Amino acid sequence: MERSPPTWFGFTLTQKQAVSLFVLALFGVLICVFVFVMSFTSIYINYYYSSIDDYYYMDDSYTNMMIISQLPITIFFLVIFVICCYTLSKCRKIAKYYNQHSSYPQNRTQTYVPRTPQIRTPEVKPIYNEMLFCPNCGTKHGESHQYCINCGYELI
């Protein structure tokens, strides 16, 4: 029984589309990680400066305000991160599906030998030197002639 290929959000993808989407999702994961690091760096810097500098006073309300102001962006990129991770896993399944249903051997001990095209050579007609007269016009010719001297008929 032939299984249908796995889908990505209901779309059936080809192997080439799955590879392109995999690269795009990988790039999306990297961007999300970068945004997460940058958004939490400012909070970390405030905690760091408050711990080493006696004159730097950080109020808890200020920290709460920073966290709340960054919350929508963090939630948005968290959703994008989850979608990218889902896409990475689905694209991997799609690639595995096409690898199992391809013409390449699954066993690594086997080698894939592509079919070689058959070379067609034109059929060579042998030269018969037995004719002394042209069958078309009846002109006499030598044994080494391939065409009639009078009418051009092929004597082979």
Question: What does this entry look like structurally?
Answer:
The protein is mostly helical. The chain has 2 domains: 7-100; 125-156, no CATH class. The protein is 51% helix and 3% strand. The chain contains 2 helices and 2 strands. Strand 1 (7-8) and strand 2 (11-12) form a beta hairpin. Helix 1 packs antiparallel against helix 2. It is rod-shaped. It starts with 6 loop residues before the first strand and ends in a 56-residue tail after the last helix. The model has no long low-confidence stretch (mean pLDDT 78).
Give the topology, please.
Layout: E1 7-8, E2 11-12, H1 15-52, H2 60-100
Antiparallel strand pairs: 1-2
A few lines on this structure:
This protein is mainly α and 156 residues long. 51% of the residues lie in helices and 3% in strands. The chain has helices at residues 15-52, 60-100, and strands at 7-8, 11-12.
Task: Describe the strand arrangement of the main beta sheet, using strand numbers.
Answer: 1-2
Q: Count the E strands.
A: 2
Structural class: mainly alpha
Number of helices: 2
Strand content: under 5%
Overall tally of domains: 2
Helix content: 40-55%
**Could you give a short account of the major beta sheet?**
2 strands, antiparallel
> Rough shape?
rod-shaped
Report the uncertain regions: none
Distance between the termini: 60 Å
H/E element order: EEHH
Rg, rounded, reads: 39 Å
Q: Residue-averaged pLDDT, rounded?
A: 78
List keywords for this structure.
single chain, 156 residues, mainly alpha, two-stranded antiparallel ribbon, 51% helix
